[in-house]
Amino acid sequence: MGYQVAFISLGCAKNQVNCEQMMAAAQAAGHTVTAEPAGADVAVVNTCGFLSSACEEAIGVILEMAELKAAGRLKKILVTGCMAQRYKGSVLEELPEVDGILGTGSYGDIAAAVEEAMERGLRPCRFGNIHTAEQGGPRILSTPPWYAYLRIAEGCDNHCAYCVIPSLRGKYRSRPMEELLDEAAELASAGVRELLVIAQDITRYGTDLYGERRLAALLRELCRLDFHWIRLHYLYPDEITEELIDTIAREPKILPYLDIPIQHCNDGILKAMNRRDTKAGLLSLFRELREKIPGLVLRTSVITGLPGEGEAEFEELCQFLREVEIERAGVFPFSPEEGTRAAAMGHPDGEEARRRAELAVDVQSDIIDSYNESLLGETREVLCEGFDGQAQMYFGRTYAESPDIDGRVYFASEEEIPAGTFVTVRFTAAMDGEPVGEREEEP
Questions:
Q1: CA count, 13 A, side-chain hemisphere, 125
Q2: Residue 389: strand pairing partners
Q3: DSSP 3-state helix, strand, coil percentages of the chain (rounded to 5)?
Q4: pTM above the 0.85 mark?
Q5: What are the φ and ψ backbone dihedral angles of 154, each rounded to 5 degrees?
Q6: pLDDT tens digits along 20-52
Q7: What is d(CA 126, CA 103) in angstroms, rounded to the nearest whole number?
Q8: Are 364 and 329 in contact (CB under 8 A)?
Q9: Separation of alpha carbons 10 and 19, rounded Å
């Protein structure tokens, strides 16, 4: 018997891919997939569990589903993903409204869990092996038709002191290159124009499977497919090779936009975080990247307020951001996550961590404003993503903006532009910190 199954995915793009795979599995089993939980038989909440704040958000969504259930507008609630994996049995104990949970090793069991909950009145509780779980399989894309994610690996072996990901996602496992190229070819055939290559650490790709780093080789093969843009997310600094840099610089489809999380720059703090970088190494890497990749836009993430970070270490971080002029940065106050080594480093001052995060954001805002000013009078290729009725302008992204992370650019056009179309825009101003321009007629 088929049921109406609604899916809600929280957290990162890697989680979203898992949700797309669950939707395909549910549909293949004869169920109808919907995005609207009201009126559905089952709501599947695919949770993030990376930070306590993400768990709180997930609980809020689960309680919203519980209200629908109490009102008779939803029959069952299943919880999947990282929060389910992190807290296992306590989810069922503390949230009696939940009708079943699946850990990160059991996404493939979603259809069986739906049937157990609906037909047999059971509360499925499935936790498969997170180190060996299947990674591939069909997907129902939940992104706009012009872009999609390609997850090339699962898990993480970096074991940063503040991070729970290895315990939630397992050891690092690269997917076979042939499998990835087949999946990518299907995406290109479906009309995907921008491919986002993702993993917790894409630079390590191939080391477990082939005994050597194979990201550069994979990217060269992906560039042979019919994509217009290829974007890279989560490159670890100490794993970036000369071959990879040369490949990025040489292949026009690979965007000069690199997401390289550094978390800090002070050598003592980096060591406490169990990062393998040094400040000198980071400066050298960024200098080389700027020299070899014209127009490079860098994205990173940093953490403020780790126990041991004093005013001097924090000021060093701010000065580093000013010196390197990283165009995009996510700044996060330290969160002592249960089960991590950093949580045992001492009692953190949460208020001070938040204050420093706000100050670092101010530094970053100045860098972004300067970057936007540098665009004035310049032309850039823009991927149009729609029309903003309030602003009466089209919006989209240049290579410098990754979807759902970096904001938008706005532009005027006398001609109607379908979403998913590439156009040339000359930038003339900024609006609320985002570039604004006019479409240029194609020669």
A1: 9
A2: none
A3: 35, 25, 40
A4: yes
A5: -130, 155
A6: 999 999 999 999 999 899 999 999 999 999 888
A7: 6
A8: yes
A9: 9
Q: Which of 332, 364, 365 is nearest to 350 (CA)?
A: 332
- Burial class from Cβ neighbours inside 10 Å (0-12, 13-18, 19+) for residue 195 reads buried
**How far is residue 238's CA from residue 68's CA, in Å, rounded to a whole number?**
48
**Digit-coded pLDDT (tens) for 146-204:** 999 999 999 999 999 999 999 999 999 999 999 999 999 999 999 999 999 999 999 99
Strand partners of residue 409: 396
Query: How far is the first Cα of the chain from the last one, in angstroms, to the nearest whole number?
Result: 57
DSSP line for 203-243:
GGTTTTTTSS--HHHHHHHHTTSS-SEEEEE---GGG--HH
Cα four-point dihedral sign 244, 245, 251, 256? positive
Structure tokens at 147: 């872009």
Paired sense of beta strands 229-233 and 194-198, if any: parallel
Neighbours of 414 (CB within 10 A): 7
- Listed residue (214, 180, 212) closest to 195, CA to CA: 180
**Helices 110-119 and 13-28, packing angle to 10 deg:** 60
Give SS3 for 87: helix
